Amino acid sequence: MTTHLDASLSRLFDPHSIAIVGASATPGKIGAMPVTLLRQYGYAGRIVPINPRAEAIQGLPAFAGLSAVDDAIDLAILAVPAAHAAQALAQARPGQIAGAVIFTSGFSETGDAGRAQQAALTQAAHERGIRLLGPNCLGFMNVRKQVYATFSPAPANGAVAPGGIGMVSQSGAFGAYAYSMARERGLGLSHWISTGNEADIDVADCIAWLANDADTRVIMAYMEGCRDGDKLRAAFAGARAAGKPVVVTKIGRTQAGARAAASHTAALAGDDAIYDALFRQYGVLRARTIEEFFNLGYALDTWKQPPRGNRLGIFTISGGVGALMADDAADTGLVLPEPAADAQARLLAQVPFASGRNPVDVTGQAVSEPGVLLSTAQDMLSDGRYDALAVFLAAAGSSETLWPTFENFARQLQASRPDVPLAICALFPPARRRELEQLGCLVFADPSAAVRTIASLAGLADKRTNEADHPASDASARQGLPLLRSYNEVQAMALLREAGLPATPSVLVSDADGAVAAAADIGAPVVLKIVSADIVHKSDVGGVALKLSGEAAVRQAHADILASVRRHAPQARLDGVLVAPMAPAGVECIAGIHDDSVFGPVVMFGLGGVFVEVLKDVSFRLAPFGHGEALSMIREIKGHAVLQGARGAPPCDLDALADALVRLSQLAVVQRGRLASLEINPLLALPRGALALDAVVIPAAPGG
C-alpha cells in the first residue's frame, strides 16, 4: 500500500509564511508566545502579526486582519476568543490561507453553544479551503524547520533536538509533557503536533502524513479515542507500508461500548479490546505506561533495526542482576538459549569462577581484564543464536578510567554484528550515554526496563510486514445472502453455508413423525433442538436433546422438548424442531461478529465453555483479514495449547479453523451495517476440518 503526502497538510506543517491572528507583544499572552518562539529559534519564513490595535508587534509590521494581507499565507494561527474565531477566519479570501491552528478553547468541549461555534468555525474554514488543526489545541512544532506554532511554554525552557520521531497527541497537556520528556531523554523530534477537538485534522490524518514525511522515522501517538475507524486503520496501514513503526499510548482501558446479553462477542468487545486488536493487527506497539512509551520510542529511534526474534543473550558482571534479568525475560516471553559448549569452555578457561550459561556471568573480574568483555560477547554472538544482547555493567559505567574499554566494546560489537541490537545497562554520565547511543546502542540504568523494551520490540519487523490486511471479498455476494428481520437457527446456519463456512447439515420438522423420518435418513445418533428466533439459549429452556437412537427415543425427546419450552418460554414463537447428526469429538470453540460503531465489524475467537464464560480468554481482529492473521488470532489465546492436543488428544486442524475465521471476516464485511452480531457457538475444531454446530444471528436495527 502506498500513499501520497497530503499537500494541504504539508503547507500547514511546513509553512513558508505564518500569520498570527491576535498577535501580542505582551509576555504571557497566548498571542505573544508563537511570535516570540518563531523569532527566538530563527524561523526563516515570513511572520505576519495580525492585530487591528497595533502597527507593529515585536518589531514586525502588523496588519488589521487577514483581508489586509495581499499575499497567500501557508499557516494562520488564531489566538483570539472563541466567539471571534470564525469571524477572524472569515476575513480570509478563498484560497488565501492553506491551514489554520486554533489555540482557543470554548468550543465543542463546553456544550451545545460551543458546538455551534465550532460548527461555524469549521464551515468558514471549509468554504475557504482551509485545513483546521484544533480548536482547543496547543498547536504544533516542526523542529527541523524551526516552526513553533504553539503557545506551550515547553520550548521556551529549551528546544528539543531535531531528530526522527514524529509525535502527535490528542491531549495538549500530555503533549507538552511529552515534549519536555523527549528533551530530558535526549530524543530528537521531527514534528510535535497536538490535535485538540479535531474539528478537521485528527490523529489519523497526522499519522498518515508523518508516515510519508521524509524527516520522520518513528511515530509516537497519544490517543483518547477515535471517531473514524476506517481512517485510523488506513493511517496505520500507511505507516506499516512505509516501514515506520508506530508507538501508541491509548487511555481508557475499561470495558465500555455495546452490550448484548445474547452475544458473548458484543459483551466482550469493549472499546479497549477493539483498540488492542487494531494495534496487534497493524503491528502498532501499545505502551501501557509513560515510561514504556518513551522507552519504545527511544529504542526504535536508536536501533537501526529491532530484534528479529525473541532469543535474548544476557551478559553480566553480576550473577544476581543476571538472574533478575532472566526472570524478566521469562515473564515477557523471551527465550534464553545457552551459548555453544566450546564458547562456554573458552570463557571458563579465562575466568574460572564465571558462569557460561545464559545469563553469562563474567563476574567483576572482567572489569580488571577488559579483553574478556569483548571476547566473550563476540563468542556468544558468533553462531547467530541471539536476536539481541543485553549487557549489565553496574556502576562501572561511571568510571572514566574504564570508558575506553566500554566504548571499544560497543564499537567493536556494533561493527562485527550490526544485526544484533545491543542494550547496555549501566550508570553512564549523560555525555558518555549519548556517545554510546550515537553508536546505535541503547543505554538503560534499569536492566529490567531494558529487557521489557527488547521483549516489546522482538519480531516487530514480522508484525509490520504481515500479509495484506484487506483480502478480497466478493461484495456481489451481498445480493445472494438473505436479509431477514429475525433468524432462527436453521436460517442462521444457512447464512453460514451461503458464506462458505462449514456448518452441520440439519432438517427442520414440524411434528414427531417428521423427526423420526429425518433421524432415520440421517442415521443414529442424532440431536434434536427447538427452533425459534425468540430463544437464544436453547438448553436453558430444555430445548436440546442429545445422542438419540431409535424411533422411541426420538419421539419421546420431541415431546419432552416441546413440553419444556412451552413451560419455560410460553410466549416464544416456535418454528419447529431441528434434527441433525451428533457431532464428532473435537474442541468446542466460539467465534462471532460484532458491528462496532467506530471500527465496523470485529471478529472474536476463543475456546468455548468456561474459557469464554469465566476466563474471557478471547482474541479479536477487525474484519476483513487473511489466513496468517487468523492463525495469529488463534495462537494468541491462552488456551491455545488445548487446540494443539493437550493430554494425549489429537491436535486440531488449525488451518481449517483459520479458514473458517477468514470466511467469517469476509461475511462480516459483506453484511456490514446489516448484522448487529453473529455468533457461532460452538465452532467445533476437529483433527481434520472444522464444523459450526449452532449459530445466533441478530440483525441490525432498522435505520442502523
Automatic annotation (TrEMBL):
Keywords: ATP-binding, Nucleotide-binding. Pfam families: ATP-grasp_5, CoA_binding_2, Succ_CoA_lig. GO terms for molecular function: ATP binding; metal ion binding. Residues 493-529 form the ATP-grasp domain. The keyword tRNA-binding does not apply. It comes from the Bacteria. SMART domains: CoA_binding. In the N-terminal section; belongs to the acetate CoA ligase alpha subunit family. PANTHER family: BLL6376 PROTEIN, COA BINDING DOMAIN CONTAINING PROTEIN. This is Acetyl-CoA synthetase. It comes from Bordetella ansorpii. The lineage of its organism: Bacteria, Pseudomonadati, Pseudomonadota, Betaproteobacteria, Burkholderiales.
